[in-house]
User: What shape does this take?
Amino acid sequence: MNCIQEIMLLLNSSAGEAYLGEAVTQREHALQAAQFAMVEGADDGLIAAALLHDIGYWIGCGDTPHEKAGADWLAQRFVQEASEPVRLHVAAKRYLCTVDNVYASELSPASLLSMQIQGGLMNSGERHSFELNRFHQHAVRLRRWDDRAKIPGTAVKDPPAYLPILHRVLRSL
Assistant: This one.
């Protein structure tokens, strides 16, 4: 089985589980985030990142933070434009809470709770380091789609609609 077949299998199995504290499944959440990325004209790497930003949960991240486990898995298979926004999407939430006073008030209760567990507000050094990362703006866009992708019953494309995009962002070995 190749990695894209594995992703399709995960989207139809592990990702079907409840998204803790939210009214959608992880699958619905992933497909909504990817759809927001497409509607906003994101490039293929960022659409793939939106679709797969929580893959760390689906592959069983154990004690490793899901964003790191997912990004490491993706980096072995896909271009950085797909893996690095995934690595940074939790940091992007912390960053946005730090620099935007309104942002935190728009988060779901579950997202606010997880933000505290994930480190809370960034200090100035963390913020500066995040801003220096060349993928930080991509991660911020992904974060905003992630935050919005929690609407029960939203019509989305089925996972196979993303096959051409995933094929285009595979790493050349």
Q: What stands out?
A: Residues 80-99 form the longest helix (20 residues). The chain has one domain: 3-17+24-150.
